[in-house]
């Protein structure tokens, strides 16, 4: 789900931005006025949202505003393209991790339900480590290695504790990104393994439904939205938005520092670096929101929900399709969808739901490849006819 | 989190917290500390807090190598003698490989 947050200069002093956010099944919230103080509500959202913010820095005098805005628009488009590429890498990485795990560990192609109950009963007390330890065990079983409890305990303890420190407190950016990718991959693997076949496909299909689309568009374009309030609140407080749920790419300090007009707006209390930088932020379903005292970073932010569902689609294709053609087709489809949505976003600077677009393409490609292209390729190979 | 942005005192405080945190059986934290603060401690031109940061990085590296040694020793012993330990070996095992050792 994409939503564009673009700021306008309607108030001279206050930095005003329109944020488009999408809650799909959430109760209505009291009307939200961006200029005044508002009380934040924290709902859980069952929709993944990506907001693209292409707001350049504040303008100077009225005369120069038009020119400045044009320049800034170009700037933002340029950065928008760069950040698209920056998103491709983590999304690709996540999908690659999921697909390799599925292909190498037979666990994921089996349809036994026994393992679920065994695993669940053993690790019920440690939900976060449950999937990690299950997967670790399956990895070791695949390679027929003996591992003792002590080593495994050390591995999982270190992995978990450093992850907590890195994501919820302070840590190097690359490590944070790596952890988020790994966690998304783990979640996707859990979805793929433990949801019955048709549930997964129907959940994915739900994202493409026109009703969802309409609901998202309405929610996104209206000024009342819990997600928007959350983002605004987080920005007002100089907090990053749900650090555990957002993947953040590089920061663009040099751009913001170079812009002198930022000095005027710096007293609004909002982080100046957020304003010159186009960033895509996405908010995800599950979990709690973590309020964090860190200064939010600029750059591109993408929500984990998107990672997870893209990876679920590709992983499902790898697990059930059994053929690389299908997997690759899904992968390409998702990237095309991502690219298209970001492009549309940069052009219109409006809220657009993006997850449906990628998932739609993915599903179309998957089923068409599976039912049309695959038999075609097989019979071609059978008849030794090379194109 | 970008180290460039932080004032030196905060860098020192961060390094110190990572160093202290590693004592909770977290050699990985020490590894992160070493890699992350290596440039600050050894490559950058000297600043006031650099000596302390250097100490922490060095100690983290020390702790890390200690843990690596311990774990390597234990894993070697375990892999080598597991089959001979019989039942104890099995109880210690998280996964038991199939086939004859």
TrEMBL record, chain A:
Family annotation (Pfam families): Presenilin (PF01080)
Keywords: Endoplasmic reticulum, Golgi apparatus, Hydrolase, Membrane, Notch signaling pathway, Protease, Transmembrane, Transmembrane helix
Record membrane topology: Multi-pass membrane protein
GO biological process: amyloid-beta formation; axonal transport of mitochondrion; brain development; calcium ion homeostasis; melanocyte differentiation; membrane protein ectodomain proteolysis; neurogenesis; Notch signaling pathway
Tagged with keyword Endoplasmic reticulum: yes
UniProt GO molecular function: aspartic endopeptidase activity, intramembrane cleaving
Annotated TM spans: 84-102, 149-169, 178-195, 201-221, 328-348, 354-373
Taxonomic superkingdom: Eukaryota
Record's subcellular location: Endoplasmic reticulum membrane; Golgi apparatus membrane
Keyword Membrane listed: yes
Subcellular location, principal: endoplasmic reticulum
Cellular component GO terms, alphabetical: axon cytoplasm; endoplasmic reticulum membrane; gamma-secretase complex; Golgi membrane
InterPro entries in the cross-refs: Peptidase_A22A, Preselin/SPP, Presenilin_C
PANTHER family: PRESENILIN, PRESENILIN-2
Family designation: Belongs to the peptidase A22A family.
Protein name (record): Presenilin-2
UniProtKB/TrEMBL annotation, chain B:
Pfam family, one: PEN-2
Membrane topology: Multi-pass membrane protein
InterPro entries, per database record: Gamma_Secretase_Asp_P_PEN2
Single GO BP term: negative regulation of neuron apoptotic process
Source superkingdom: Eukaryota
GO cellular component labels: gamma-secretase complex; Golgi cisterna membrane
Record field: transmembrane: 20-39, 60-81
Keywords noted in UniProt: Membrane, Notch signaling pathway, Transmembrane, Transmembrane helix
Subcellular location: Golgi apparatus, Golgi stack membrane
PANTHER family given in the database record: GAMMA-SECRETASE SUBUNIT PEN-2 (PTHR16318:SF0)
Family that this chain belongs to: Belongs to the PEN-2 family.
Protein name per UniProt: Gamma-secretase subunit PEN-2
């Amino acid at each position: 789900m994409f939503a564009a947050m673009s700021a306008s200069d309607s108030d001279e002093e206050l930095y005003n931005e329109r944020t488009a956010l999408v809650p799909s099944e959430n109760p209505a919230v009291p009307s939200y006025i961006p200029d005044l103080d508002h009380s934040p509500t924290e709902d859980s959202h069952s929709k993944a949202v990506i907001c693209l913010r292409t707001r350049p820095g504040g303008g100077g005098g009225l005369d120069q505003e038009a020119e400045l805005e044009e320049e800034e628009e170009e700037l933002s488009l340029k950065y928008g393209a760069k950040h698209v590429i920056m998103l491709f890498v983590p999304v690709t990485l996540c999908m690659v991790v999921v697909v390799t795990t599925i292909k190498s560990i037979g666990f994921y192609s089996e349809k036994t339900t026994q393992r679920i109950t065994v695993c669940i009963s053993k690790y019920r007390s440690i939900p976060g480590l449950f999937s990690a330890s299950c997967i670790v065990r399956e990895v070791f079983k695949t390679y027929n290695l003996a591992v003792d409890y002590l080593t495994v305990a050390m591995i999982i303890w270190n992995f978990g504790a450093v992850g907590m420190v890195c994501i919820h407190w302070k840590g190097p950016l690359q490590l944070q990104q790596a952890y988020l990718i790994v966690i998304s991959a783990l979640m996707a693997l859990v979805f793929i393994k433990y949801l019955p076949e048709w549930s997964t496909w129907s959940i994915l299909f739900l994202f493409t439904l026109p009703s969802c689309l309409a609901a998202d568009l309405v929610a996104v374009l209206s000024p009342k939205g819990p997600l928007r309030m959350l983002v605004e609140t987080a920005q007002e407080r100089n907090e990053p938005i749900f650090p555990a749920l957002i993947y953040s790419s590089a920061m663009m300090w040099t751009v913001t520092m170079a812009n002198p007009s930022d000095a005027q707006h710096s007293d609004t209390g909002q982080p100046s670096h957020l304003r010159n930088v186009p960033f895509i932020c996405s908010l995800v379903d599950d979990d709690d929101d973590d309020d964090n005292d860190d200064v939010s970073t600029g750059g591109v932010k993408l929500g984990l929900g998107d990672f997870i569902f893209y990876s679920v689609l590709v992983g499902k294709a790898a697990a059930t399709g059994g053929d690389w053609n299908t997997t690759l087709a899904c992968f390409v489809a998702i990237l095309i969808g991502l690219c298209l949505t970001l492009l549309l976003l940069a052009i219109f600077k409006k809220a657009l739901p993006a997850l449906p677009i990628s998932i739609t393409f993915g599903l179309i490609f998957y089923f068409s490849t599976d039912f049309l292209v695959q038999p075609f390729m097989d019979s071609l190979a059978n008849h030794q006819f090379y194109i | 989190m970008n180290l460039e942005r932080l004032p030196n005192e905060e860098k020192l405080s961060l390094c110190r917290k990572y160093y202290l945190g590693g004592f909770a059986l977290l050699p990985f934290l020490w590894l992160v500390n070493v890699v992350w603060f290596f440039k600050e401690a050894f490559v950058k031109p000297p600043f006031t807090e650099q000596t302390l940061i250097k100490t922490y990085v060095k100690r983290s590296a020390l702790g890390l190598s200690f843990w690596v040694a311990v774990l390597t020793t234990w894993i070697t012993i375990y892999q080598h003698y597991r089959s001979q330990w019989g039942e104890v070996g099995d109880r210690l095992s998280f996964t038991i490989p199939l086939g004859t050792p």
